[in-house]
């Protein structure tokens, strides 16, 4: 994977990543395709609205259908009919957030499947082996996601585990796959700094910030986002994991982050909450009953070009599958368009105006 | 609507219906778009697989969002973004099958909404007014769907009600909308004959057979299908309502029916039951876990061109929306393809071979 820094505006960056499966223009939003499909969307629709890379969850794919099966079916790209880049997480975060029972040990984590209660173990070796068989373009190291709040001592021990695992993952990296390290350290600046030093020493194709948006106050989160970004190498992509609320994205891009993922646009779509150029709306509102206008008059997505709010309200209340499809197309289009315009503003040197304008709307 | 009889093979017919919104080649299968969307499909996808006409349910649209709202949103075509022909039923059948409580009177039927328990009344005048405001291309008369079994006396009274309502509907027909009469008469040949005589006297743009597939033995159903078809005018389209199992379709086409609708291909798709050139399969079967092959090696639909059975099994078990989409595309493509090939066999004079071949598979 080749990294090109195209333009900076303050600390905000517009970059270009070149991969064997296509270009990635950053800042980039990665739609989440948890089990091998971005919910409600087809790969063609994702391409049509401009998705350049998607994220899949190793934890889910490992449990079902299993990485060996995906490998035997030709790897994750062929499996899900998506020929552009795919980033897989390491599974660590989902083990912490989804499994009923987990036990962290020095060499990895034991956990109970949320699907059938069966017991499993993932260590650095397993995380790399699974991601290698999946065949993603970008793999993530296994990390120990430090919860909030954590004592300094707990955060430090957790961080050293993450660093040790990162080195073990690095040693197992195949040449076909990029590998990103993950910065931990909770809200302790010296630990975050230590984390980055060690990861840079090991050497990765990109660096991610983890352990944020795990319950800490927004102000603290933004402080750590800026602090972390300021220490990361400038010549590698920077990925802020799991954060995708647009207000947070604006802050993180300002700080110098490049890559983002979040289930919010797709999950909100299925719940009838839609992003527009005038703020969020709930499509089920009574006032839309006879509304002939599009969801967002400023939007050019398939949904806004072809359907009225009245129809979208009707199929949402009728729980129709097409409702989830049309809402998801709109929300993802809105996100991709937001990111494209954000990138443009960086290239034109007017990112601050872009940020100010959107902070008033969001 | 202009009717052209293109070719007959025995009693089987290949016809061409010309409407203001496009051509309909018969025998034709109408996918069901109950509340204004064919479940899981977009209009573009329906066109791509060759849908020429769809059916919407008046009962559902009347209750939600309401015909006045659809009218104010530009009519059913604009509402649902479908510019090809639409047939609406009269609502009668759903009143009988879905509403919690119904009371048939001489001038119409009182019923309780299955959505909120509210009370409603639909008579011939209301059925025509609702369908006129929806703006469908083909409207159906309100009929009293005679249940099975019925005594001769009950069936006769029910039939006379249907004939009276049909005449009242006919008197209210607008010039923009075709109107089909509905033959009733239960399993009594003289009543079916009487029904057809009266409807032909009134004069309709097409004739439908109702009151079949309501619990009677298959053999009886096929007997009535053949008997009814033999008496219907040859210069108008003939529609066999609600029947779409392919074995029954073959029999009905042999008898001379032209139009069909059924929720089976779409409903089965969502339940993971898929039609193939070698018979039905259930996609959830364990044996498909690592199966790299397409659903149906002889199928050229989007699903079969792009996805393996292994993937389709995985997303079905994961209850993903894309599963319902891909399965529905396949099943509808299979149906449309079946109907296209059946038409071709009639034009080539080899319908009997077509029927024999498929009866061995189905």
Describe the 3D structure.
The structure is a homodimer of 362-residue chains. Chain A starts with a strand and ends with a helix. An 8-stranded parallel β-barrel of chain A has the order 4-5-6-10-11-12-13-14, surrounded by 5 helices. A 3-stranded antiparallel beta sheet of chain A has the order 1-2-3. In chain A, strands 7-8-9 form a 3-stranded antiparallel beta sheet. Chain A is globular and about 60 Å long. The first copy, chain A, has helices at 43-48, 58-63, 67-72, 75-80, 92-98, 124-134, 152-171, 189-202, 218-231, 246-255, 264-270, 302-306, 309-317, 321-347, 351-361; strands at 2-9, 12-19, 22-26, 28-32, 54-56, 86-88, 102-105, 108-112, 119-122, 138-140, 178-183, 206-209, 238-240, 259-261, 273-274, 281-282. Chain A is built from 15 helices and 16 strands. In chain A, helix 11 (264-270) runs antiparallel to helix 14 (321-347) and helix 14 (321-347) runs antiparallel to helix 15 (351-361). Chain A is an alpha/beta fold and 362 residues long. Helix content of chain A is 44%, strand content 19%. The model of chain A has no long low-confidence stretch (mean pLDDT 97). Chain A binds chain B through residues 35-37, 39-42, 64-65, 69, 72-74, 79-81, 289-290, 292, 306-308, 310-311, 313-315, 317-318, 320-322, 324-325, and chain B through 35-37, 39-42, 64-65, 69, 72-74, 79-81, 289-290, 292, 306-308, 310-311, 313-315, 317-318, 320-322, 324-325.
The number of helices of chain A is 15
The largest inter-chain interface, given as chain pair and residues per side, is: A-B, 34 and 34 residues
Mean pLDDT across the residues of chain A is 97
The low-confidence parts of chain A are none
């Amino acid at each position: 994977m080749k990294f090109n820094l195209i333009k900076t505006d303050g600390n905000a960056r517009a970059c270009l990543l070149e991969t064997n499966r296509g270009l990635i223009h950053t800042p980039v939003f990665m739609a989440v395709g948890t089990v091998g499909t971005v919910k409600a969307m087809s790969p063609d629709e994702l391409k049509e609205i401009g998705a350049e890379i998607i994220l899949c969850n190793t934890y889910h794919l490992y449990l079902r259908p299993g990485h060996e099966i995906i490998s035997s079916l030709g790897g994750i790209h062929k499996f899900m009919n998506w020929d552009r880049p795919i980033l897989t997480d390491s599974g660590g975060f989902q083990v912490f957030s989804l499994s009923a029972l987990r036990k962290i040990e020095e060499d990895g984590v034991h956990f109970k499947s949320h699907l059938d209660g069966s017991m499993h173990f993932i260590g650095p070796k397993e995380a790399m082996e699974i991601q290698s068989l999946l065949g993603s373009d970008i793999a993530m190291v296994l990390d120990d996601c430090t919860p909030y709040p954590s004592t300094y001592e707990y955060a430090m021990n957790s961080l050293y585990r993450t660093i040790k695992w990162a080195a073990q993952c690095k040693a197992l990296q195949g040449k076909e796959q990029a590998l990103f390290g993950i910065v931990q350290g909770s809200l302790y600046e010296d630990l975050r700094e230590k984390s980055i030093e060690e990861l840079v020493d090991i050497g990765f194709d990109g660096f991610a910030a983890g352990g944020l948006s795990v319950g800490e106050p927004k102000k603290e989160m933004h402080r750590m986002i800026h602090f972390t970004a300021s220490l990361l190498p400038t010549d590698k992509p920077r990925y802020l994991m799991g954060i995708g609320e647009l207000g947070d994205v604006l802050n993180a891009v300002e700080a110098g982050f490049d890559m983002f993922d979040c289930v919010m646009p797709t999950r909100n779509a299925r719940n009838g909450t839609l992003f527009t150029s005038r703020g969020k709306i709930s499509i089920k509102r009574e006032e839309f009953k006879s509304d002939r206008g599009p969801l967002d008059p400023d939007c050019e997505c398939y949904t806004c070009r072809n359907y009225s709010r009245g129809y979208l309200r009707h199929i949402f209340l009728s729980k129709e599958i097409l409702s989830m499809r049309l809402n998801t197309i709109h929300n993802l289009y809105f996100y991709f368009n937001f990111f494209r315009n954000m990138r443009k503003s960086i290239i034109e040197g007017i990112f601050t105006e872009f940020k100010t304008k959107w902070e008033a709307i969001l």
